[in-house]
Each structure stands twice: as structure tokens, then as C-alpha cells.
């Protein structure tokens, strides 16, 4: 799980991508998930990265594509932005979207 601060520079994104790559290549994982928020608005995570002007987006998308990590979350907020990122190497994954009432109910349980 990771979260990078808004307006972070390219170096932080490159270092993060290298850390993820190093971890995945040094261990024998069957499936991996990277969860978090990179605070990069207006990005289509399901591309090759070449259509983005933000170098931070290109760095992550190229690295994650190389590692076989695919964006699984397809839910957008009212501004058409994916806030929660779920990248995985798993081929068979099922995600369910919780309704507002389900989230409120879960918060009362905790």
C-alpha cells in the first residue's frame, strides 16, 4: 500500500517504480497487488503511458506494464477520476463496489 504526496517530482515516482520492480524481481511471488493513491489526476491507468504528458505518469505506467501489473479498479468519482488504485498481476480477480449504505453500516460495526 502506498500514497505519494500531491505534486511529487519525477524522482520520487521513479524511485517508487524501482522499489516495486526490485521487490517483484527479487522474490518469487505468484500474484502481487499494489494498492494506493499516487495523486496524479487526469490519468488513464489502462494505457501504455505514451499518451500522457506528465513524466510521473509515464514512469509508473511503463514500469507497471513491464511488471505485468494491471489496474483493476474501474470506479470513477463524480469528477471522473480513479481515486483508489488497485494494480495486480493476478489474472482472475473479482472486485465488488460497496454502496454508500454498506459503507455506513460497516463504519457503525467498527
Report strand order across the widest sheet.
Answer: 1-2-4-3
Estimate nothing, just give the exact number of structural domains: 1
Which structural category do the helix and sheet elements fall into?
alpha+beta
* β-strand number: 4
How confident overall, as mean pLDDT?
79
Q: What proportion of the residues is helical, as a percent range?
A: 25-40%
Number of helices: 3
Unreliable stretches: none
Terminal Cα separation, in Å? 21 Å
Portion in strands? 5-15%
Shape: globular
Series of H and E elements: EHEHEEH
Radius of gyration: 15 Å
Main sheet attributes: strand count, strand direction, barrel closure: 4 strands, mixed
Protein name: Endonuclease/exonuclease/phosphatase domain-containing protein
Organism: Ladona fulva (Scarce chaser dragonfly)
State the main characteristics.
globular, alpha+beta, 4-stranded mixed β-sheet, 3 helices, 12% strand, 110 residues, 4 strands
Strand-helix topology:
Layout: E1 2-3, H1 10-26, E2 33-37, H2 55-66, E3 70-71, E4 85-88, H3 100-109
Parallel strand pairs: 1-2
Antiparallel strand pairs: 2-4, 3-4
Structure report:
The chain is α+β, with helices and mostly antiparallel strands. It has one domain. It has three helices and four strands. A four-stranded mixed beta sheet has the order 1-2-4-3, with no helix packed on it. Helix 1 runs parallel beside helix 2. The model has no long low-confidence stretch (mean pLDDT 79). It comes from Ladona fulva. This is Endonuclease/exonuclease/phosphatase domain-containing protein.
